[in-house]
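Shipment paperwork, digital attachment
Item: protein structure file
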Amino acid sequence: MLIYPTVNGLEMYSSRQTDIRTETDTELLSELSQGKVENVRQNISAVQKELSDKQAESQKQAEKKELLDKLDKGELSYRNLFKNVYIMGDSLVDGIKVYNILNSNNLITQVSASLFHLNDNVDKMVRMNPEILILHYGLNHVEDVPQQPANFIGFYTKIVTGIKAKLPDTRIIISGIFPVDTDKARDKNYKRIDDYNDAIKEMCNELGVEYLDNTAAFSNADAYYEADGIHLKVDFYEKCWFRYIVAEKEIYR
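Attachment content:
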């Protein structure tokens, strides 16, 4: 004899299946909802961060403009602004000392200086414990015909590595070699400056220090060269180079 389910039994079975589907759908909707909420939260956070970054950048640019305006108007001196900036280098930066633009105590420079000058004065600079250190060396190596960028960079790398170890909190900025006025300075070796600067830039990337590309600073510098086409007049440092450093490297922050 066959026994068939009763109508009530079918109703109970059907009701139970509906409950199971409803519970499953609810859980699924809940999970989807939570996921959407989390996505919304992440989107809001991303938008808030973007707005915050834009506000910070806008404030930074406003500070920079205000500072540069003060420098241009003579309301602020580089001597005061660069009180925690120390410079080491050859005759191209020795002019800063000659013209008395910055405090002489912040300068370790010498005419015809090579990397041996830097190497010999590392301990002196370490005792000064600068907040920011700018190095400019290389022109006298470019003039040395047998010298090659690889030899120069090998020695430079060794010295800068030692400085980093002794001054871990110092911000190190290595300047590219200043370009020369080739109409006045006709030595063919000066054509090697770009090769040396490429090597210096690569060294900076490898060592994790900052490279200062001076190209923009010299964009209108023709009138500032001395008769030899190499060295620079006093106005160059304040109107071009220092101003460029402030804008490019944000020394004021």
